[in-house]
Amino acid sequence: MGLMIKQEKTSIIPRLDTPSTYKDHQFKGSDQEWIEEIQKTRTLYVGNLSFFTTEEQIYELFSKCGEIKRVIMGIDKIKKTPCGFCFVEYYANEFALNCMKYVNGTKLDGRLIRTDLDPGFKEGRQFGRGRSGGQVRDEYRQEYDQDRGGWGHMKAREVEERNQQMMQVYEPIGVIPTGASAKINSRLGGPEIKHETSKRRRDSYDQEEPSFDNKQIKLEPEFGSQGLENIDAEESFNADREELANTEMSDDLERD
């Protein structure tokens, strides 16, 4: 009679309805108690939500896996606005396991959401645990995420400090270029500067060019001294010719 060996069936595909290795550090029980609570839980933690995702959108998606008892939206403990997570509580453990199979890793409001089995919601867990009031992950996030408030808290503070330093080293314009408006500098935060260059130029014009009444006008001949001599010679020549013509006329009269 041969020896029969019982072999257990194994699968290369991991189960999707199992909890992750994460444990809430504020859970007051032991590791074994944590595992027991997780195995019978009806509550899910949902992370990586957009700050703009509504409670109605949560109901619409998660109700496909079973009847929902309630949804608790995570909020910023300072601003009292949504900060990217929530708790979904079902009426049965089976519904929570179905959600781990079919909803975890899918898209909601354009983002890949993450679900995890949770031992159960308690009052106070709806608030973010970060120093800024939101989630801890958003404290140290270095990339810009528009759906989660822009920069992470640390990065946003660095950007703000750098902008303040740039404003401190800024110096208002001291000299306004010729032709520019004198009000430009005042709009940039500096004192209004008048056009000293234009004023000095106008003063120099007033000194160098006297008024029309004080000028001594001297009319010069149109053709110069040489032109006057030519005019006198021409007039003398015409007079001689006229005198000669009169003489000739008188001679003619006498001959007649």
UniProtKB/TrEMBL annotation:
<feature type="domain" description="RRM">
    <location>
        <begin position="42"/>
        <end position="120"/>
    </location>
</feature>
<feature type="region of interest" description="Disordered">
    <location>
        <begin position="181"/>
        <end position="256"/>
    </location>
</feature>
<dbReference type="InterPro" id="IPR035979">
    <property type="entry name" value="RBD_domain_sf"/>
</dbReference>
<keyword id="KW-0508">mRNA splicing</keyword>
<dbReference type="InterPro" id="IPR000504">
    <property type="entry name" value="RRM_dom"/>
</dbReference>
<protein>
    <recommendedName>
        <fullName>Nuclear cap-binding protein subunit 2</fullName>
    </recommendedName>
</protein>
<dbReference type="GO" id="GO:0005846">
    <property type="term" value="C:nuclear cap binding complex"/>
</dbReference>
<dbReference type="InterPro" id="IPR034148">
    <property type="entry name" value="NCBP2_RRM"/>
</dbReference>
<dbReference type="GO" id="GO:0006401">
    <property type="term" value="P:RNA catabolic process"/>
</dbReference>
<keyword id="KW-0539">Nucleus</keyword>
<dbReference type="InterPro" id="IPR012677">
    <property type="entry name" value="Nucleotide-bd_a/b_plait_sf"/>
</dbReference>
<dbReference type="Pfam" id="PF00076">
    <property type="entry name" value="RRM_1"/>
</dbReference>
<comment type="similarity">
    <text>Belongs to the RRM NCBP2 family.</text>
</comment>
<keyword id="KW-0694">RNA-binding</keyword>
<keyword id="KW-0509">mRNA transport</keyword>
<keyword id="KW-0507">mRNA processing</keyword>
<dbReference type="InterPro" id="IPR027157">
    <property type="entry name" value="NCBP2"/>
</dbReference>
<dbReference type="GO" id="GO:0051028">
    <property type="term" value="P:mRNA transport"/>
</dbReference>
<dbReference type="GO" id="GO:0005634">
    <property type="term" value="C:nucleus"/>
</dbReference>
<keyword id="KW-0813">Transport</keyword>
<dbReference type="GO" id="GO:0000339">
    <property type="term" value="F:RNA cap binding"/>
</dbReference>
<dbReference type="GO" id="GO:0045292">
    <property type="term" value="P:mRNA cis splicing, via spliceosome"/>
</dbReference>
